[in-house]
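Async update (no meeting this week)

Hi team, since we skipped the sync, here's where things stand on the single-chain job. The sequence we agreed to prioritize is pasted below, unchanged from the tracker. I ran it this morning and attached the output directly underneath so nobody has to dig for it. Comments welcome in thread, and please keep replies under the output.
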Amino acid sequence: MFTAGPSDGDGFDRGAFPQNTMIDPSVSYAAWRAANFTAAQTGAGLGDPGADPDGDGLINALEYAIDKNPLVPDNSPGLFSGLMAPNFLTVSARKAAYLPHAFFSADYVGDVAIWTFPTNAITVENSAARFVARDDTPIGTKPKNFLRLKVTLLP
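Output:
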C-alpha cells in the first residue's frame, strides 16, 4: 500500500491533488455514500465505512477521506508514503481538502499483535491537502515499531 513518488527532497510524495479544492461542508459521509452506492448496495453493507467493495485494501472511510471511487480498485502510486524521513518511521497521505468530515491521525506500537495502548505519533503536517506523522524514536533504536494511519469520520 505504501509507495514513493515525486518529492521536494524531503521524501514526501507531492502527487497531484484533487482539482476541486473548494470546501463543501455538505459532503458528509452519508451524502458521499448515497452518491456512490445504490440502495441495494447500501442495504447489503457495501457502503459501510469499514467495507472494501472494490477489494483494493482501502476501506470506504479512507476512500471518502482521500476522494477515491469505492467501486474501482485503486493502486495509484502516491496515495500514501511510508518513507523514512529524517531517520524516523513516517507516514504521509494526501487528503481531499473539500471533504472536511474526516479527521486524520496516526499512532504507533512496538508489537502489532498488541495494539491495545498505542502512542500518538508526532504530527508533522496536517494541512487541508496532506497529513504527515512520524514515530518519536529514530529508526534503529527499537527492535521493531509499527505506525498506523487512522481516519475518523466526523458528523
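Quick observations from my side:
The chain has a mean pLDDT of 78.
The beta strands are 80-81, 84-85, 88-94, 102-109, 119-120, 122-126, 130-134, 146-153.
Reply here if anything looks off.
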